[in-house]
Fold:
Amino acid sequence: MRYSRFLAPTMRNTPSDAEVVSHQLLLRGGFIRRVTSGIYDYLPLGLRVLRNIETIVREEMNRAGAQELLMPMVQPSELWHKSGRLQKYGAELARFNDRHGHESCIGPTHEEVVCDLIAKDLRSYKQLPLNVYQIQTKFRDEIRPRFGLMRGREFIMKDAYSFHADEQCLQQEYENMFASYERIFTRLGLDYRPVEADNGSIGGLASHEFHVLADSGEDLIAHCSACHYAANVEKATAKHPTFKYHQATRAEISTPGASSVEDVTKMLGIKPEELIKTMMYHITGGVYDGGVVAVCVCGDDSVQEVKLARSLSAETVRMADDEMMTDAGAMKGFVGACGLSVPVFVDHALRGATGLTMGANLLDTHLSGIDVAQDIPVKEWLDVRAVKVGDTCNHCDDGTMQWRRGIEVGHVFALGSCYAEAMEVQFQNKEGRRATATMGCYGIGISRLMAAVIEQCHDDAGIVWPECLAPFQVSIISLGKKDAVMDASASLYHSAQQAGFEVLWDDRKERPGVKFRDHELIGIPWQIIIGDRDLEQGNVAVSARCGEKTILAIDDAISLLSSSCKH
Ligand code: ATP
Ligand code: MG
Structure:
């Protein structure tokens, strides 16, 4: 491709609305342009990178035995009604009526459509297992689209769905997909980590997310310093550091105006872990739907609300408002777990604790000398505390928990039969009886990956693409306008293409400084620089994106690239 004819408009300045480096560099390098909130054009450079990502994903999915198909973006809402997700999915699901008044939606994911497809043709267990995938545009009307391709409203996903006659077979395919994801992210050259993930409200048997480690990531990952344990903080567990409990007689103590952990501990001269924090939550979904519950954790801990929701099989948990608290018998600022009219759940870290202090549900008053098991009417012990940096690992006892930020680029999910049951994906089993299929689903954020790679692969000058993803492998940079330079460049351009390289020839009438800056910005791995002074000696300069220049004979340039280029 000749740069002079190429639609790759670079920008000098960083666009003010781009907060993360990948968004800045994708805009500045002319890879993408914003159409409207969370929706982008992929320019030729961007599309080339996307296609390279897709190729790797496709190769590994095919190698793992999955079959590619393509499902529609527009889906009839009836299918979503059938699965029970039409209401649940909420405003992220974009809906519209066609001219006949039938409601449709734009697919944010394809469990419904794929179940409908498979159910129609599935008759016998002999047709199973089956794994189908597509690479396709999704639409989710995200409440906060941001960071460019990282969280778009329209984005490209690889989504795969597997169907099985039993759970054991699903487990095997889950492991197969897990391994192929490891191959994909390794080939993409990423520093990534698979982490245990929350299964979401649909339950399911197992779920892992694959995170690219980057400070700009939206997710928090807790991982052990010594073993392989890593989990999304929404799911992570760890041991609470042990502390000494002491005996103390139960007493009402006056704590005027002290309603925060900090105020109370300061006033009473105790440590935060000697305090019990009681939180009141309003629950929707599950057995406590519409009600309020109290949750106790150590004073130095906080409640992980996703863990709480999951433990109570709730859809959402949110802090109870003042009126709900008063109705439950709680005194705002001095809430305690005694004397409430609502169920009280207590975190495991408080098991066996004695001599602690907690709110008395009376203004300006706390209770000291609390023996948790004896004094608190515990409905159930739960693991709802948020894991903290430094907690002891539950899985190895040697390491401590650390936190990293991550970008979720993939998700594997052993769903079980939840969708298949609602969508009636049934077959005749070996015993001749009707049975419901067991399912897995496996997603990769193709367009998000383009951003995630840049978060890990860049320097001050621009993007440093891994060779397998670069939009071109080689750029030929012609310096000056002399005919000799242009002729030599043209001939090298053709030989490099003939040797199988994707080449961008910078034939523009720009100053050398502009050309060098642009090529560093767009991150092509190899450059051949042709200037008249070197050319007079029959030479050109070859350099890697971050390497030193080598001056060599023009005829040797292609063979040097052939031996250096990994791809
Ligand atoms: P997130 O928690 O980031 O919203 P999710 O759990 O909703 O992700 P999945 O439904 O598992 O995501 O989708 C599979 C993959 O699609 C994700 O792992 C992610 O890489 C990608 N993805 C999801 N939402 C977006 C988005 N709004 N923009 C770009 N990629 C996305
Ligand atoms: Mg999401």
The chain has 16 helices and 31 strands. The first strand starts at residue 32 and ends at 36. The mean pLDDT is 94. The two ends are 19 Å apart (CA to CA).
